[in-house]
Amino acid sequence: LVAHLAEACRADGTPHPMVAAMTACSGAWAVTLGELRRWSAARAHGGQAFVVENPPVFEWLLQRLAQAPPEHRATLICTGGFLSAAGLRLLDLLVADGTEIWYGGDFDRNGIVIAAGLAARYGDRFRLWRFGPEDYQAAAEGAMGPPLSDADREALLAVEGPLVATARAVVRGGVAAYQERLVEVLVQDLLG
User: Fold this and answer.
1) Residue that wins the pLDDT comparison between 95 and 28
2) What is the pLDDT of residues 53-90, one digit of tens each?
3) What is the pTM of this model?
4) Longest dimension (CA), the chain
5) d(CA 185, CA 170)
6) Can you name the residues that pair with 78 across neighbouring β-strands?
7) Between 164-173 and 109-122, two packed helices, what is the crossing angle to 10 degrees?
8) Are 27 and 4 in contact (CB under 8 A)?
9) What is d(CA 8, CA 42) in angstroms, rounded to the nearest whole number?
10) What is the DSSP string of 114-183?
11) Is the pLDDT assigned to residue 34 strictly greater than 80?
């Protein structure tokens, strides 16, 4: 799912009219791989694309962004969990244009593995978005997430790169925590 792209170009280099229309009405678009294969470029507002893992978080943020003037609507993408070929194609196009990918997800095995994969793929164009150890603490505080299994702990301890500190914090905490607990902070980031 994608909302508020600054621009996308068709293979012939002409602007895609649907992108402008969806951004103007603050709508989201479930862009297919077939559609993305017809794009030659994509550009995010302000050179930043904010990526979330969960559709409910995406929907809530999109509703809040709809209240902002169009020029202040950040590019927002939802992976719906592990990235599909379409999701990777969209992010590849954005990164090729110089976009920074700001990723935030659930503080569990899958969310951290997804982030670690994106960090490895996009290198210096990848940023953690409210996905550090202190964010885990905020999301876990007062919540009763499911306890980690031995397999979860093992996978988290194997994480390398910029997600090491977050993965270790989750292992120490012993329970998963969810991005939904941070939506107020996330929306302030987008509007600020």
Assistant:
1) 95
2) 999 999 999 999 888 877 778 999 999 999 999 999 99
3) 0.94
4) 53
5) 20
6) 52
7) 170
8) no
9) 4
10) HHHHHHHHHGGGEEESS-SHHHHHHHHTT--PPBPPHHHHHHHHT--GGGHHHHHHHHHH-B-B-GGGGH
11) yes
